[in-house]
């Protein structure tokens, strides 16, 4: 399937599309994921640019994080690019952890199949996460697609796929709390509120 056909299939016939994508190469899923990231990057950048309060705050964030001053437009693009890179890194690490949880539940698929499931389930969020309230529906829809993807790619039942997602989310929160308590120091952001 081509990227556009996959996109429409994920949105309109996810069960059949994911069954077809099970046989597709990991490379085609990566291309699809990169296109989703590009779409998300474009939407996110446009929203940051057209929102005056976000544009002005982005310069403050860059100054705080990197210690350099830059125009609002340039800082918006830099923040969008940094967000994109951070998203990819977090997705790779989270995917590894999801695969560990899947294996604990006797999932049969490969790590590549886990990443394919993550990539395809990100479709609604990539397009709709910027719309208030609709983003909640997009998140639930993405969870449904993740369960469906686990069923297809790892050959587990719906109940097991749901249990995997619940265990994954709980364990991920526990890991984030542990990580934050060890590595993250509070940052004084009071200057952002003063404007």
Strand content: under 5%
Pairing-aware structural class of the strands and helices?
A: mainly alpha
Q: Figure out the total of helices.
A: 10
The largest sheet is:
none
Number of strands: 0
**Averaged pLDDT, please?**
84
Compute the separation of the termini in Å. Answer: 51 Å
Shape: globular
The domain tally reads 1
In terms of per-residue confidence, which ranges show pLDDT below 50 for 5 or more consecutive residues? none
Radius of gyration: 19 Å
Percentage of residues assigned to helices: over 70%
Give the helices and strands as they follow along the chain. HHHHHHHHHH
Could you characterize what this model shows?
The protein is mostly helical. Helices cover 82% and strands 0% of the residues. It contains ten helices and no strands. It is globular. The mean pLDDT is 84.
What attributes characterize this protein structure?
about 200 residues; mainly alpha; about 80% helix; about 0% strand
Summarize this entry quickly.
This protein has helices at 3-12, 14-22, 26-50, 52-66, 72-104, 111-121, 123-128, 134-154, 158-183, 190-193. It has 195 residues and is mainly α. The longest helix has 33 residues, at 72-104.
